[in-house]
């Protein structure tokens, strides 16, 4: 702190004429507190009104048509028009393969196909899933 | 409860009014009416936080509110600061009113600083606060507060050259 700064500090701290706290100051202060309290209350009330209005608006605009009230349908299994062979093992002798390949209950083929029960042929169908062997490693 | 709070608050305000008013006056560059308004606003704010700060440092709280409000006040329309070309007359040496005149010159010089420079100078040299607390009161980084104070002092050095003579 140089000479100027010290002198400046001294000037700033020079004893000013005392300023008493007068009744008019007290009244002005209390009036200010009351005004601020009223402003705060008004702001809070306005906030509540706005929040209520916003909530009401959301409820009014909330989509609630009859179609939308139904529960969602369960997911349906995917179907394909071609029968999918089931990866079963070779049927035991004497057991006829009479069941059609598994399909979904609502699957309706457009054209009748040959079913295994139409013939007496009891040989298992050519099924690569059931007859294939695992590849052997070649040396 | 409310009565006790009001009593404590009134006692604090009555005891510290003069000192706080002097600070407000320096922060406003000697504008008496503006200083009174500024102090009223700060004390109204103090009322609402009184239960929290009463036992700690109510005066520090008021000082911070005063400094921040004064530093921001340039943006307000009703701020009536008018820069002038010539500073008021210098008092003659030995004059009985020399102190008053010196004070007027100081306030006029302070009024020519920017609000932030003025607040930094007053907090630093009148309140004797370290740079960190000046920065905290103004709500700015320490380097910025230091820069405001240094620029303010440099300007005052030019403005008050004939009041505060250099040594030697």
Describe, in short, the structure shown.
The complex is a heterodimer of chains A (139) and B (168). Chain A is mainly alpha-helical and 139 residues long.
Overview of the structural elements:
The complex is a heterodimer of chains A (139) and B (168). In chain A, 38% of the residues lie in helices and 0% in strands. With 139 residues, chain A is mostly helical. Chain A has a domain at 24-63. Chain A has helices at 3-12, 23-61, 128-131. Chain A contains 3 helices and no strands. Chain B contains 7 helices and no strands. Residues 75-79 of chain B have low confidence and may be disordered. Chain B has helices at 2-27, 32-53, 58-72, 98-111, 115-126, 131-138, 142-159. By secondary structure, chain B is mainly α. Helices cover 68% and strands 0% of the residues of chain B. Chain B has a single domain (2-76, 93-159), classed as PhyR, sigma-like (SL) domain (Butyryl-CoA Dehydrogenase, subunit A, domain 3, Up-down Bundle). Chain A binds chain B through residues 3-5, 7-9, 11-14, 16, 18-21, 25-26, 28-29, 32-33, 36, and chain B through 10, 13-14, 17-18, 21-22, 25-26, 36, 40-41, 43-44, 47-48, 99, 102-103, 106, 121-122, 125-126, 128, 153, 156-157, 160, 163-164, 166-167. Chain B: Belongs to the sigma-70 factor family. ECF subfamily. Chain B: InterPro entries: RNA_pol_sigma-70-like, RNA_pol_sigma-70_dom, RNA_pol_sigma-E_actinobac, RNA_pol_sigma70_r2, RNA_pol_sigma70_r4_t2, RNA_pol_sigma_r2, RNA_pol_sigma_r3/r4-like, WH-like_DNA-bd_sf. Chain B: Residues 20-79 form the RNA polymerase sigma-70 region domain. Chain B: This is SigE family RNA polymerase sigma factor. Chain B: Residues 105-156 form the RNA polymerase sigma factor 70 region 4 type domain.
CATH architecture grouping of chain B: Up-down Bundle
Secondary-structure-derived class of chain B: mainly alpha
The helix/strand order of chain A is: HHH
- Indicate the low-confidence ranges of chain A by residue numbers: 107-139
Radius of gyration of chain B: 17 Å
